[in-house]
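#dry-run=false #mode=assembly
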Amino acid sequence: MKNLLFVISFDGKMYHGWQSQKNAVTVQDTIKKAFFNITGDKANIIGCSRTDAGVHANMFCFSVKTKSTIPTDRFVMALNGQLPFDIAASKCIEVNESFNARFSCIKKEYVYLIDTGEIRNPFLSGRAYHYPFFIDEKRLNETAKHFLGTHDFSAFCSADTVVLSKIRTIYDIGVKRNGDIVSINICADGFLYNMARIIVGTLIYTENGKIKESEIPQIISSLDRTRAGITVMPQGLYLNKVFYDFEI
Amino acid sequence: MKNLLFVISFDGKMYHGWQSQKNAVTVQDTIKKAFFNITGDKANIIGCSRTDAGVHANMFCFSVKTKSTIPTDRFVMALNGQLPFDIAASKCIEVNESFNARFSCIKKEYVYLIDTGEIRNPFLSGRAYHYPFFIDEKRLNETAKHFLGTHDFSAFCSADTVVLSKIRTIYDIGVKRNGDIVSINICADGFLYNMARIIVGTLIYTENGKIKESEIPQIISSLDRTRAGITVMPQGLYLNKVFYDFEI
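#status=ok
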Protein backbone atom coordinates (compact mmCIF):
# COMPACT_ATOMS: atom_id res chain seq x y z
CA MET A 1 0.00 0.00 0.00
CA LYS A 2 1.47 3.34 -1.08
CA ASN A 3 0.37 6.72 0.19
CA LEU A 4 0.48 9.25 -2.66
CA LEU A 5 0.30 13.03 -2.63
CA PHE A 6 -0.99 14.71 -5.79
CA VAL A 7 -0.78 18.37 -6.74
CA ILE A 8 -3.59 19.54 -9.02
CA SER A 9 -5.09 22.79 -10.29
CA PHE A 10 -8.67 23.37 -11.36
CA ASP A 11 -11.06 25.91 -12.77
CA GLY A 12 -13.94 25.60 -10.31
CA LYS A 13 -16.60 27.21 -12.52
CA MET A 14 -18.39 23.96 -13.36
CA TYR A 15 -18.08 22.32 -9.92
CA HIS A 16 -20.08 22.44 -6.71
CA GLY A 17 -16.85 22.74 -4.78
CA TRP A 18 -14.39 20.07 -3.73
CA GLN A 19 -16.41 17.80 -1.49
CA SER A 20 -18.50 14.85 -2.70
CA GLN A 21 -22.21 15.57 -2.87
CA LYS A 22 -25.28 13.74 -4.00
CA ASN A 23 -26.86 15.23 -7.13
CA ALA A 24 -24.00 17.62 -7.91
CA VAL A 25 -20.69 17.32 -9.70
CA THR A 26 -17.71 18.02 -7.43
CA VAL A 27 -13.96 17.99 -7.95
CA GLN A 28 -13.49 15.16 -5.44
CA ASP A 29 -15.98 12.89 -7.22
CA THR A 30 -14.43 13.70 -10.58
CA ILE A 31 -10.99 12.71 -9.31
CA LYS A 32 -12.34 9.62 -7.59
CA LYS A 33 -13.78 8.44 -10.91
CA ALA A 34 -10.59 9.21 -12.83
CA PHE A 35 -8.53 7.42 -10.18
CA PHE A 36 -10.83 4.40 -10.38
CA ASN A 37 -10.53 4.33 -14.17
CA ILE A 38 -6.74 3.99 -14.03
CA THR A 39 -6.30 1.87 -10.89
CA GLY A 40 -9.55 -0.02 -10.31
CA ASP A 41 -9.41 1.34 -6.72
CA LYS A 42 -12.49 2.95 -5.19
CA ALA A 43 -10.02 4.91 -3.14
CA ASN A 44 -10.60 7.48 -0.44
CA ILE A 45 -9.44 10.80 -1.92
CA ILE A 46 -8.45 13.19 0.89
CA GLY A 47 -8.39 16.87 -0.13
CA CYS A 48 -6.36 19.57 1.62
CA SER A 49 -9.37 21.86 1.84
CA ARG A 50 -13.11 22.02 1.21
CA THR A 51 -13.40 24.69 -1.44
CA ASP A 52 -16.83 26.20 -2.13
CA ALA A 53 -18.79 25.98 -5.36
CA GLY A 54 -17.14 28.17 -7.99
CA VAL A 55 -13.82 28.54 -6.14
CA HIS A 56 -10.67 27.78 -8.16
CA ALA A 57 -7.29 26.32 -7.29
CA ASN A 58 -3.92 27.24 -8.71
CA MET A 59 -2.57 24.60 -6.34
CA PHE A 60 -4.58 21.99 -4.48
CA CYS A 61 -3.31 18.79 -2.87
CA PHE A 62 -4.94 15.46 -2.20
CA SER A 63 -3.61 12.25 -0.75
CA VAL A 64 -4.75 8.73 -1.53
CA LYS A 65 -3.69 5.25 -0.43
CA THR A 66 -3.51 2.70 -3.20
CA LYS A 67 -2.24 -0.78 -4.05
CA SER A 68 -1.78 0.27 -7.67
CA THR A 69 1.56 -0.71 -9.18
CA ILE A 70 1.62 2.28 -11.55
CA PRO A 71 5.04 3.90 -11.01
CA THR A 72 4.73 7.19 -9.12
CA ASP A 73 6.35 9.15 -11.95
CA ARG A 74 3.73 7.89 -14.46
CA PHE A 75 0.69 8.68 -12.36
CA VAL A 76 0.39 12.33 -13.41
CA MET A 77 0.10 11.50 -17.11
CA ALA A 78 -2.22 8.57 -16.41
CA LEU A 79 -4.54 10.68 -14.28
CA ASN A 80 -4.55 13.62 -16.70
CA GLY A 81 -5.63 11.24 -19.44
CA GLN A 82 -8.84 10.64 -17.43
CA LEU A 83 -9.46 14.14 -16.08
CA PRO A 84 -11.66 16.74 -17.82
CA PHE A 85 -10.20 19.90 -19.38
CA ASP A 86 -10.72 21.99 -16.24
CA ILE A 87 -8.71 19.84 -13.81
CA ALA A 88 -5.04 18.91 -14.25
CA ALA A 89 -2.54 17.05 -12.08
CA SER A 90 1.02 18.38 -12.10
CA LYS A 91 2.84 16.29 -9.51
CA CYS A 92 2.66 12.97 -7.66
CA ILE A 93 5.03 11.95 -4.87
CA GLU A 94 5.06 9.08 -2.40
CA VAL A 95 4.63 10.18 1.21
CA ASN A 96 4.77 8.33 4.49
CA GLU A 97 1.85 6.30 5.73
CA SER A 98 0.68 8.81 8.32
CA PHE A 99 0.48 11.73 5.87
CA ASN A 100 -2.99 13.18 5.32
CA ALA A 101 -3.45 16.02 2.79
CA ARG A 102 -5.90 17.77 5.12
CA PHE A 103 -4.48 17.25 8.61
CA SER A 104 -0.81 17.44 7.65
CA CYS A 105 -1.31 20.83 6.02
CA ILE A 106 0.44 23.56 8.01
CA LYS A 107 -0.37 26.65 5.97
CA LYS A 108 -2.47 27.73 2.99
CA GLU A 109 -2.55 30.79 0.81
CA TYR A 110 -5.66 32.05 -0.94
CA VAL A 111 -5.72 34.83 -3.50
CA TYR A 112 -8.81 36.86 -4.41
CA LEU A 113 -9.01 38.67 -7.75
CA ILE A 114 -10.98 41.89 -8.20
CA ASP A 115 -11.46 43.26 -11.70
CA THR A 116 -11.76 47.04 -11.30
CA GLY A 117 -12.13 47.69 -15.05
CA GLU A 118 -15.04 49.94 -15.97
CA ILE A 119 -16.39 47.38 -18.45
CA ARG A 120 -16.67 43.71 -17.47
CA ASN A 121 -14.04 41.57 -19.16
CA PRO A 122 -15.52 38.49 -20.91
CA PHE A 123 -12.29 36.57 -20.25
CA LEU A 124 -12.61 37.11 -16.49
CA SER A 125 -16.21 35.98 -16.23
CA GLY A 126 -16.34 33.45 -13.36
CA ARG A 127 -12.70 34.16 -12.59
CA ALA A 128 -12.73 37.53 -10.83
CA TYR A 129 -15.17 39.78 -8.98
CA HIS A 130 -16.15 42.66 -11.23
CA TYR A 131 -16.04 45.76 -9.04
CA PRO A 132 -15.82 48.71 -11.46
CA PHE A 133 -14.75 51.32 -8.91
CA PHE A 134 -11.55 52.93 -7.73
CA ILE A 135 -9.43 50.93 -5.31
CA ASP A 136 -6.33 52.46 -3.74
CA GLU A 137 -4.30 49.27 -3.52
CA LYS A 138 -1.50 50.85 -1.46
CA ARG A 139 -3.93 52.09 1.16
CA LEU A 140 -5.76 48.75 1.11
CA ASN A 141 -2.46 46.94 1.55
CA GLU A 142 -1.91 48.95 4.76
CA THR A 143 -5.48 48.39 5.94
CA ALA A 144 -5.12 44.65 5.44
CA LYS A 145 -2.26 44.48 7.96
CA HIS A 146 -4.84 44.75 10.77
CA PHE A 147 -5.69 41.11 10.11
CA LEU A 148 -2.14 39.87 10.70
CA GLY A 149 -1.50 37.60 13.65
CA THR A 150 -3.53 35.27 15.84
CA HIS A 151 -7.17 36.18 16.42
CA ASP A 152 -10.53 34.63 17.11
CA PHE A 153 -12.07 35.11 13.66
CA SER A 154 -15.69 34.55 14.74
CA ALA A 155 -16.66 37.85 13.07
CA PHE A 156 -15.20 36.54 9.82
CA CYS A 157 -16.91 33.24 9.34
CA SER A 158 -20.32 32.10 8.32
CA ALA A 159 -22.61 32.42 11.38
CA ASP A 160 -23.49 28.71 11.38
CA THR A 161 -19.86 27.50 11.44
CA VAL A 162 -19.37 24.71 13.97
CA VAL A 163 -15.72 24.12 14.83
CA LEU A 164 -13.83 23.55 18.08
CA SER A 165 -11.92 26.79 17.79
CA LYS A 166 -12.27 29.88 15.66
CA ILE A 167 -8.74 31.00 16.44
CA ARG A 168 -6.55 31.21 13.38
CA THR A 169 -3.22 32.85 12.57
CA ILE A 170 -2.75 35.02 9.51
CA TYR A 171 0.94 34.99 8.61
CA ASP A 172 0.77 37.26 5.64
CA ILE A 173 -1.79 39.41 3.85
CA GLY A 174 -1.14 41.82 1.01
CA VAL A 175 -2.79 43.75 -1.79
CA LYS A 176 -1.29 44.32 -5.25
CA ARG A 177 -2.42 45.73 -8.57
CA ASN A 178 -1.68 44.47 -12.07
CA GLY A 179 -3.51 46.72 -14.53
CA ASP A 180 -7.23 46.60 -13.71
CA ILE A 181 -6.78 43.53 -11.49
CA VAL A 182 -6.39 44.04 -7.76
CA SER A 183 -5.34 40.84 -5.97
CA ILE A 184 -5.53 40.13 -2.25
CA ASN A 185 -3.32 37.33 -0.91
CA ILE A 186 -3.99 35.80 2.50
CA CYS A 187 -1.73 33.17 4.03
CA ALA A 188 -2.87 31.47 7.25
CA ASP A 189 -2.57 28.25 9.24
CA GLY A 190 -6.19 27.60 8.39
CA PHE A 191 -9.37 29.28 7.17
CA LEU A 192 -12.84 29.18 8.68
CA TYR A 193 -15.86 28.75 6.44
CA ASN A 194 -16.07 31.88 4.17
CA MET A 195 -13.25 33.56 6.12
CA ALA A 196 -11.20 34.63 3.08
CA ARG A 197 -14.29 35.97 1.30
CA ILE A 198 -15.52 37.92 4.37
CA ILE A 199 -12.08 39.46 4.93
CA VAL A 200 -12.07 40.60 1.28
CA GLY A 201 -15.64 41.91 1.59
CA THR A 202 -14.63 43.86 4.71
CA LEU A 203 -11.57 45.30 2.98
CA ILE A 204 -13.74 46.46 0.08
CA TYR A 205 -16.08 48.11 2.59
CA THR A 206 -13.15 50.19 3.85
CA GLU A 207 -12.64 51.39 0.27
CA ASN A 208 -16.24 52.36 -0.38
CA GLY A 209 -16.60 53.97 3.05
CA LYS A 210 -19.04 51.55 4.67
CA ILE A 211 -16.43 50.61 7.28
CA LYS A 212 -13.61 52.78 8.60
CA GLU A 213 -10.12 51.35 8.42
CA SER A 214 -9.67 52.07 12.14
CA GLU A 215 -12.72 49.95 13.03
CA ILE A 216 -11.20 46.69 11.89
CA PRO A 217 -9.51 45.77 15.19
CA GLN A 218 -12.85 46.41 17.00
CA ILE A 219 -14.73 44.30 14.47
CA ILE A 220 -12.26 41.46 14.98
CA SER A 221 -12.56 41.63 18.76
CA SER A 222 -16.39 41.98 18.63
CA LEU A 223 -16.60 38.35 17.36
CA ASP A 224 -19.80 39.60 15.68
CA ARG A 225 -20.34 38.49 12.09
CA THR A 226 -22.87 41.26 11.46
CA ARG A 227 -20.20 43.94 11.94
CA ALA A 228 -17.90 42.69 9.18
CA GLY A 229 -18.44 43.22 5.44
CA ILE A 230 -20.20 41.07 2.86
CA THR A 231 -19.12 37.61 1.75
CA VAL A 232 -17.82 38.38 -1.74
CA MET A 233 -18.67 35.98 -4.56
CA PRO A 234 -16.69 32.71 -4.69
CA GLN A 235 -15.65 33.06 -8.36
CA GLY A 236 -12.83 35.48 -7.50
CA LEU A 237 -11.24 33.09 -4.99
CA TYR A 238 -8.30 30.79 -5.71
CA LEU A 239 -6.52 28.40 -3.40
CA ASN A 240 -3.03 29.49 -4.40
CA LYS A 241 -0.52 27.52 -2.33
CA VAL A 242 -0.58 24.63 0.12
CA PHE A 243 2.25 24.05 2.58
CA TYR A 244 3.42 20.90 4.37
CA ASP A 245 6.48 20.43 6.56
CA PHE A 246 8.49 19.38 3.51
CA GLU A 247 9.04 20.88 0.06
CA ILE A 248 6.64 19.60 -2.58
CA MET B 1 -30.82 57.45 -38.94
CA LYS B 2 -27.51 57.22 -37.09
CA ASN B 3 -24.62 54.96 -38.07
CA LEU B 4 -22.95 53.60 -34.93
CA LEU B 5 -19.64 51.84 -34.49
CA PHE B 6 -19.34 49.55 -31.47
CA VAL B 7 -16.18 48.03 -29.99
CA ILE B 8 -16.73 44.71 -28.26
CA SER B 9 -14.69 41.79 -26.92
CA PHE B 10 -15.80 38.19 -26.60
CA ASP B 11 -14.76 34.77 -25.40
CA GLY B 12 -15.61 32.68 -28.47
CA LYS B 13 -15.69 29.31 -26.71
CA MET B 14 -19.47 28.95 -26.75
CA TYR B 15 -20.06 30.42 -30.23
CA HIS B 16 -20.01 29.06 -33.75
CA GLY B 17 -18.07 32.09 -34.85
CA TRP B 18 -19.26 35.57 -35.70
CA GLN B 19 -21.58 35.07 -38.63
CA SER B 20 -25.30 34.26 -38.37
CA GLN B 21 -26.12 30.62 -38.93
CA LYS B 22 -29.20 28.48 -38.78
CA ASN B 23 -29.17 25.98 -35.91
CA ALA B 24 -26.11 27.41 -34.19
CA VAL B 25 -25.48 30.23 -31.75
CA THR B 26 -23.21 32.92 -33.17
CA VAL B 27 -21.91 36.22 -31.83
CA GLN B 28 -23.69 38.20 -34.56
CA ASP B 29 -27.07 36.68 -33.72
CA THR B 30 -26.51 37.25 -30.02
CA ILE B 31 -25.77 40.92 -30.62
CA LYS B 32 -28.68 41.28 -33.01
CA LYS B 33 -31.03 40.00 -30.30
CA ALA B 34 -29.53 42.25 -27.62
CA PHE B 35 -29.76 45.24 -29.97
CA PHE B 36 -33.39 44.44 -30.73
CA ASN B 37 -34.17 44.18 -27.02
CA ILE B 38 -32.99 47.74 -26.37
CA THR B 39 -34.02 49.49 -29.60
CA GLY B 40 -36.81 47.42 -31.13
CA ASP B 41 -34.76 47.54 -34.38
CA LYS B 42 -34.19 44.31 -36.30
CA ALA B 43 -31.02 45.99 -37.45
CA ASN B 44 -28.33 44.76 -39.81
CA ILE B 45 -25.25 44.19 -37.65
CA ILE B 46 -22.10 44.47 -39.80
CA GLY B 47 -19.02 42.82 -38.28
CA CYS B 48 -15.42 43.75 -39.13
CA SER B 49 -14.49 40.12 -39.70
CA ARG B 50 -15.92 36.60 -39.90
CA THR B 51 -14.24 34.85 -37.03
CA ASP B 52 -14.37 31.03 -36.91
CA ALA B 53 -16.04 28.91 -34.26
CA GLY B 54 -14.01 29.06 -31.04
CA VAL B 55 -12.01 32.16 -32.03
CA HIS B 56 -11.92 35.00 -29.49
CA ALA B 57 -11.72 38.76 -29.78
CA ASN B 58 -9.91 41.20 -27.53
CA MET B 59 -11.22 43.87 -29.89
CA PHE B 60 -13.92 43.43 -32.51
CA CYS B 61 -15.94 46.15 -34.23
CA PHE B 62 -19.38 46.20 -35.70
CA SER B 63 -21.44 48.95 -37.27
CA VAL B 64 -25.20 49.31 -37.28
CA LYS B 65 -27.65 51.88 -38.60
CA THR B 66 -30.48 52.73 -36.27
CA LYS B 67 -33.29 55.20 -35.67
CA SER B 68 -32.97 54.67 -31.93
CA THR B 69 -32.89 57.84 -29.86
CA ILE B 70 -30.73 56.30 -27.12
CA PRO B 71 -27.84 58.75 -26.64
CA THR B 72 -24.59 57.35 -28.06
CA ASP B 73 -22.85 57.55 -24.69
CA ARG B 74 -25.56 55.40 -23.05
CA PHE B 75 -25.55 52.63 -25.63
CA VAL B 76 -22.62 50.68 -24.16
CA MET B 77 -24.30 50.22 -20.78
CA ALA B 78 -27.67 49.49 -22.39
CA LEU B 79 -26.19 46.83 -24.67
CA ASN B 80 -24.11 45.23 -21.91
CA GLY B 81 -27.26 44.87 -19.86
CA GLN B 82 -28.59 42.56 -22.59
CA LEU B 83 -25.41 40.70 -23.55
CA PRO B 84 -24.32 37.40 -21.98
CA PHE B 85 -21.25 37.14 -19.69
CA ASP B 86 -18.90 36.24 -22.55
CA ILE B 87 -19.51 39.30 -24.75
CA ALA B 88 -19.01 42.92 -23.63
CA ALA B 89 -19.24 46.25 -25.43
CA SER B 90 -16.68 48.87 -24.42
CA LYS B 91 -17.27 51.75 -26.82
CA CYS B 92 -19.89 53.26 -29.11
CA ILE B 93 -19.27 56.21 -31.42
CA GLU B 94 -21.27 57.81 -34.17
CA VAL B 95 -19.64 57.48 -37.60
CA ASN B 96 -20.53 58.88 -41.01
CA GLU B 97 -23.21 57.30 -43.14
CA SER B 98 -20.82 55.55 -45.55
CA PHE B 99 -18.84 53.79 -42.81
CA ASN B 100 -19.00 49.99 -42.85
CA ALA B 101 -17.21 48.02 -40.10
CA ARG B 102 -16.07 45.43 -42.65
CA PHE B 103 -15.22 47.42 -45.75
CA SER B 104 -13.85 50.49 -43.99
CA CYS B 105 -11.36 48.37 -42.05
CA ILE B 106 -7.79 49.10 -43.19
CA LYS B 107 -5.80 46.75 -40.98
CA LYS B 108 -6.31 43.98 -38.43
CA GLU B 109 -4.10 42.30 -35.89
CA TYR B 110 -4.54 38.73 -34.71
CA VAL B 111 -2.65 37.13 -31.86
CA TYR B 112 -2.23 33.39 -31.40
CA LEU B 113 -1.44 31.95 -27.96
CA ILE B 114 0.58 28.76 -27.51
CA ASP B 115 0.85 27.24 -24.04
CA THR B 116 4.20 25.44 -23.96
CA GLY B 117 3.82 24.28 -20.33
CA GLU B 118 4.48 20.58 -19.78
CA ILE B 119 1.12 20.11 -18.04
CA ARG B 120 -2.05 21.55 -19.57
CA ASN B 121 -3.32 24.57 -17.67
CA PRO B 122 -7.04 24.31 -16.75
CA PHE B 123 -7.35 28.10 -16.95
CA LEU B 124 -6.15 28.12 -20.58
CA SER B 125 -8.51 25.42 -21.78
CA GLY B 126 -10.18 26.76 -24.92
CA ARG B 127 -7.97 29.87 -24.76
CA ALA B 128 -4.57 28.66 -25.98
CA TYR B 129 -3.09 25.81 -28.00
CA HIS B 130 -1.39 23.38 -25.63
CA TYR B 131 1.91 22.48 -27.28
CA PRO B 132 4.09 21.06 -24.46
CA PHE B 133 7.41 21.31 -26.31
CA PHE B 134 10.35 23.65 -26.50
CA ILE B 135 9.92 26.75 -28.65
CA ASP B 136 12.84 29.10 -29.26
CA GLU B 137 10.82 32.30 -29.46
CA LYS B 138 13.77 34.43 -30.59
CA ARG B 139 14.54 32.13 -33.50
CA LEU B 140 10.82 31.89 -34.33
CA ASN B 141 10.58 35.66 -34.29
CA GLU B 142 13.32 35.77 -36.96
CA THR B 143 11.69 32.99 -38.98
CA ALA B 144 8.37 34.82 -38.96
CA LYS B 145 9.88 37.81 -40.77
CA HIS B 146 9.74 35.80 -44.05
CA PHE B 147 6.00 36.48 -44.10
CA LEU B 148 6.40 40.26 -44.04
CA GLY B 149 5.30 42.21 -47.10
CA THR B 150 2.91 41.71 -49.96
CA HIS B 151 2.42 38.13 -51.21
CA ASP B 152 -0.10 35.89 -52.85
CA PHE B 153 -1.04 33.82 -49.79
CA SER B 154 -2.71 30.95 -51.73
CA ALA B 155 -0.50 28.46 -49.87
CA PHE B 156 -1.83 29.88 -46.60
CA CYS B 157 -5.55 29.66 -46.98
CA SER B 158 -8.13 26.93 -46.91
CA ALA B 159 -8.05 25.22 -50.34
CA ASP B 160 -11.70 26.00 -51.06
CA THR B 161 -11.37 29.74 -50.47
CA VAL B 162 -13.12 31.73 -53.19
CA VAL B 163 -12.04 35.37 -53.30
CA LEU B 164 -11.10 37.77 -56.05
CA SER B 165 -7.52 38.08 -54.93
CA LYS B 166 -5.37 36.14 -52.51
CA ILE B 167 -2.83 38.94 -52.32
CA ARG B 168 -2.46 40.38 -48.83
CA THR B 169 0.12 42.55 -47.10
CA ILE B 170 1.56 41.60 -43.72
CA TYR B 171 2.77 44.80 -42.04
CA ASP B 172 4.07 43.24 -38.88
CA ILE B 173 4.61 39.79 -37.42
CA GLY B 174 6.39 38.93 -34.19
CA VAL B 175 6.85 36.23 -31.59
CA LYS B 176 7.18 36.84 -27.84
CA ARG B 177 7.26 34.75 -24.69
CA ASN B 178 5.64 35.43 -21.32
CA GLY B 179 6.39 32.47 -19.04
CA ASP B 180 5.03 29.33 -20.69
CA ILE B 181 2.95 31.35 -23.16
CA VAL B 182 4.38 32.03 -26.61
CA SER B 183 2.34 34.57 -28.55
CA ILE B 184 2.44 35.26 -32.27
CA ASN B 185 1.07 38.61 -33.48
CA ILE B 186 0.21 39.15 -37.12
CA CYS B 187 -0.93 42.50 -38.49
CA ALA B 188 -2.17 42.66 -42.09
CA ASP B 189 -4.49 44.57 -44.39
CA GLY B 190 -6.66 41.47 -44.47
CA PHE B 191 -6.68 37.76 -43.77
CA LEU B 192 -7.77 34.90 -46.02
CA TYR B 193 -9.80 32.04 -44.60
CA ASN B 194 -7.59 30.23 -42.02
CA MET B 195 -4.57 32.33 -43.02
CA ALA B 196 -3.48 33.26 -39.49
CA ARG B 197 -3.88 29.68 -38.26
CA ILE B 198 -1.92 28.21 -41.20
CA ILE B 199 0.91 30.72 -40.76
CA VAL B 200 1.12 29.72 -37.09
CA GLY B 201 1.00 26.00 -38.00
CA THR B 202 3.82 26.55 -40.49
CA LEU B 203 5.91 28.42 -37.94
CA ILE B 204 5.44 25.58 -35.45
CA TYR B 205 6.59 23.14 -38.18
CA THR B 206 9.86 25.06 -38.42
CA GLU B 207 10.34 24.50 -34.69
CA ASN B 208 9.67 20.76 -34.74
CA GLY B 209 11.75 20.25 -37.90
CA LYS B 210 8.98 19.33 -40.34
CA ILE B 211 9.71 22.45 -42.41
CA LYS B 212 13.04 24.24 -42.73
CA GLU B 213 13.08 27.94 -41.99
CA SER B 214 14.73 28.58 -45.37
CA GLU B 215 11.86 26.86 -47.22
CA ILE B 216 9.27 29.44 -46.23
CA PRO B 217 9.85 31.81 -49.19
CA GLN B 218 9.50 28.84 -51.57
CA ILE B 219 6.33 27.67 -49.86
CA ILE B 220 4.86 31.16 -50.20
CA SER B 221 5.74 31.36 -53.90
CA SER B 222 4.53 27.77 -54.58
CA LEU B 223 0.93 28.93 -53.91
CA ASP B 224 0.43 25.30 -52.83
CA ARG B 225 -1.57 24.77 -49.62
CA THR B 226 -0.20 21.23 -49.20
CA ARG B 227 3.33 22.54 -48.69
CA ALA B 228 2.49 24.74 -45.70
CA GLY B 229 1.93 23.49 -42.15
CA ILE B 230 -1.25 22.47 -40.36
CA THR B 231 -4.18 24.73 -39.52
CA VAL B 232 -3.77 25.06 -35.76
CA MET B 233 -6.86 24.90 -33.58
CA PRO B 234 -9.07 28.03 -33.47
CA GLN B 235 -9.17 28.28 -29.66
CA GLY B 236 -5.71 29.91 -29.52
CA LEU B 237 -6.68 32.71 -31.91
CA TYR B 238 -7.76 36.22 -30.89
CA LEU B 239 -8.70 39.16 -33.06
CA ASN B 240 -6.60 41.65 -31.16
CA LYS B 241 -6.93 45.04 -32.89
CA VAL B 242 -8.99 46.57 -35.65
CA PHE B 243 -7.86 49.70 -37.47
CA TYR B 244 -9.83 52.34 -39.37
CA ASP B 245 -8.59 55.58 -40.87
CA PHE B 246 -9.42 57.41 -37.63
CA GLU B 247 -8.64 56.75 -33.98
CA ILE B 248 -11.31 54.77 -32.14
